[in-house]
């Protein structure tokens, strides 16, 4: 079966030239250093803070469970307020607030469909449609790890030109199957100097899919994980090989009780596993499982979208390089042709 590629919109500007790699060491009490599959830059504590700052600014725009639910519903063709409410399970007041936020951020536009009485519908803007690859990566992850995933999402696949989403994460430059361990990081010194001052932030309490009635249950785990800004930041820390509880807390600024809750949720979901390291002053370690590593495509797609459409956002101080081809890594979305499309193609070939 042949596969076709859905190419995400490229960032508006190119990244500066990377800073040469130097020797890296493992986390120490005095300074947090980090390593990927290959070693990276010396000032890793600052680099990790820069990565988290960039992710945080992107997450503040879209990583909210209700906002994500509304965007997914809009991709599935629901435009009117009542349809969006029914699809997402949101209360009227909450739906109104989140829709207003998405309008202000430029992901949705409000258009009239009735003059008497005045009625409006909500449609995706170019900025909103460009978020499609992020949702597709969420679906790909759900399909790989949850048996119920994909039900009811055929509409999205058809909109994007096919009938099923390929399970593999691929490099947009070379088309090779890629994982998080196939990526090396290069630190951009110029970006580190532009890092804004860390600000105290407040997060909404997390509400999981168990507490709401929604027809988007096939994306329930993705919405739980990527609709929680703290959870997204912890994932980024885990990908930079932060292991200890105290280091998670120092880098994100999360209070101990909230951090314990989020880590416990991620362990229960099979995204992290707990490792007991003897003599570890920072407490037990936390490592990504295979399921956790597979979230990499979602995080990178979210970063690509943020770089392309959030002009005031601080850019990540690291450049992702695919080791195999040496190009900047962007996730490619492969949509497999729907059976009816394949049947039409076969019929056309037979007639010719």
Describe the structure.
The structure is a single chain. The chain is an alpha+beta fold. The chain has one domain. Helices cover 43% and strands 12% of the residues. The chain has 15 helices and 10 strands. The strands form 4 sheets. Strands 1, 4, 5 and 10 form a 4-stranded antiparallel β-sheet that branches. Helix 2 crosses helix 3 and helix 6 packs antiparallel against helix 14 (296-309). The chain is globular, with a radius of gyration of 21 Å.
Q: Could you give the topology of this structure?
A:
Layout: E1 4-6, H1 44-62, H2 65-75, H3 81-88, H4 92-105, E2 108-114, E3 119-124, H5 126-129, H6 132-145, H7 154-159, E4 164-165, E5 170-171, E6 183-187, H8 189-193, H9 220-226, H10 229-239, H11 245-252, H12 256-268, E7 272-275, E8 285-288, H13 290-293, H14 296-309, E9 318-322, E10 331-336, H15 339-351
Antiparallel strand pairs: 1-10, 2-3, 4-10, 5-10, 6-9, 7-8
Summarize it.
The protein is of the alpha+beta class and 352 residues long. It has 15 helices and ten strands.
Task: Describe the main β-sheet briefly.
Answer: 4 strands, antiparallel
- The residue fraction in helices comes out at 40-55%
Q: Which value, in Å, is the CA radius of gyration?
A: 21 Å
In DSSP terms (H or I, runs of 4 or more residues), the helix count works out at 15
**Structural class, please?**
alpha+beta
Distance between the termini: 21 Å
Order of helix and strand elements from N to C terminus:
EHHHHEEHHHEEEHHHHHEEHHEEH
Per the principal axes of the C-alpha atoms, what is the gross shape?
Answer: globular
How many structural domains can be distinguished in the coordinates?
1
